[in-house]
Amino acid sequence: MPRLAANLSMMFTEVDFLDRFAAAAAAGFQGVEYLFPYAWAAGDIAERLRAHGLTQALFNMPPGDWEAGERGLACLPGREADFRAGVVEALSYAETLGCARIHAMAGIRPPEADPADLEAVYVRNLRFAAAEAAKAGRIVTIEPINPIDMPGYFLATQADARRFIGLADAPDDTLKVQFDLYHCQMSEGGVSRAMDRQWPFLGHVQIAAVPGRNEPDQGEMDVGWLLDRLDARGYEGWVGCEYRPRGATTDGLAWARRFGVVPQDGRT
Ligand SMILES: O=C(O)[C@@H](O)C(=O)CO
Ligand SMILES: [Mg+2]
């Protein structure tokens, strides 16, 4: 059965970030993910994970200046030193949090940049990140993101993710695809076929309904069917619930019961 992780950047936002760990555990989750931990001390987060018996499934490397519109640094010429510092910081958090996967966001393509330069920088940076992750026993993921939500994002297609993994030629499977069903359906469709093609490269999976990015129990894509298919193929990794609840987070979890997310107080 797929192991569902609550995405604490989108779910349980009714409470402060550090209190979302307790809320996720009480709702029946055994794992969590979120975008960025860097505003909190790693030790404080680790304490919440321990206290509530949660596994940290994934988080992102520092993205650059998010408020100013940066969405990762990996493809940006001239920002290599910042990217590398981010890899080191992320791996330090991963060590304290016991987290196996860190996501390297690619960045927004600067309009004036030569595409060949961006690709060369991206591949070199990914190779560096994967090599550092390998030394620490972790893996790096890359995630194609749809251009409707994130215009100009450098890594937009599943095929490109496979291509860059090949070009980076990272050691021992340390560079993998973060396959977000929502982004794939938003921009490419053919999600089950895309999933089959990504199978050898799958490092993490995320879900949400399309088009609203809410609970995956409605919309144009049958997420339950896709999760069963993933299960039948033998996927043993985590599936991040990266969606914005339509109302209170716990009111929208009925869909997750059959995947083992059952509230600790027994209420369904
Ligand atoms: O899908 C997403 O938006 C996230 O997984 C992410 O890492 C970047 O926002
Ligand atoms: Mg995602």
TrEMBL record:
Pfam families: AP_endonuc_2. InterPro entries: HPT_OtnI_isomerases (IPR053398), HyI-like (IPR026040), Sugar_Epim/Isomerase (IPR050417), Xyl_isomerase-like_sf (IPR036237), Xyl_isomerase-like_TIM-brl (IPR013022). Residues 21-258 form the Xylose isomerase-like TIM barrel domain. GO terms for molecular function: hydroxypyruvate isomerase activity. Its EC number is 5.3.1.22. Gene3D superfamilies: Divalent-metal-dependent TIM barrel enzymes. The active site is at E143, E242. It is an enzyme of class 5 (isomerase). It comes from the Bacteria. Keywords: Isomerase, Pyruvate. GO terms for biological process: glyoxylate metabolic process. Belongs to the hyi family. This is Hydroxypyruvate isomerase. It comes from Roseospira visakhapatnamensis. The lineage of its organism: Bacteria, Pseudomonadati, Pseudomonadota, Alphaproteobacteria, Rhodospirillales.
